[in-house]
Amino acid sequence: MRLTMNVNKNNGCIIQYGFIDIFVCGQNEYGLDSGAVLELKVIPLEGLYRGKVGKWIENIDYRSLVEIDDELKTDSEENLLRRNYYYWSKQRKQYQLMNVQKCLDLGIEQINKYIKTVKKGSKGVYDERVKIEEGHSILGGYVLISRI
After folding, report:
1. What pTM did the predictor assign?
2. Could you tell me if 15 and 7 are in contact, meaning their C-beta atoms sit under 8 angstroms apart?
3. CA-angle at 108, arms to 102 and 111, nearest 5°
């Protein structure tokens, strides 16, 4: 779903769009229309390994990846959220270090912006596949984080 996140008319008409990864709609158990915004975050296993050793390594051997994969399977949620990982930042054009908790927090922030925009109705949703109607509904969001 494409959203109109920001319109800047100072420098001409510059529109900033946002894109919801997955939008699910239906009715809840009480028959009230409801929707869920799903934000998908993927953290590569290689990035988690690099975060563990604290530096960028070009070629990681298979055995090291298996070891960290096994560690992840037994880690508590608290430990998983504290883990660091490296990723390539398109904006900064360099490798960045971040922890999983920060990734989750940014995902929640993004969902809240999307929900606020969807609540504007046709002023916020810029997608011909979506029908906007007056009424009451429930709208929530979830962040799904996975490793590859």
Report:
1. 0.85
2. yes
3. 145
Residues 90-106 as b/e (b if ≥16 CB within 10 A, e otherwise) read eeeeeeeebebeebbee
Cα dihedral sign, 48-52-56-61: negative
pLDDT tens-digit map of 49-62: 999 999 999 999 99
Residue 86 exposed, middle or buried by CB count within 10 Å (0-12, 13-18, 19+): buried
What's the CA gap between 96 and 48, in Å, rounded? 12
How do beta strands 14-19 and 2-8 pair? antiparallel
- Measured distance CA(110)–CA(35) in Å, rounded: 16
Q: What is the pLDDT of residues 100-118, one digit of tens each?
A: 999 999 999 999 999 999 8
Q: Is the dihedral of CA 118, 124, 129, 130 positive or negative?
A: positive
- Would you list the domain boundaries of the chain? 2-147
Distance CA 32, CA 23 (A): 17
- The two beta strands, 22-27 and 33-43, are antiparallel
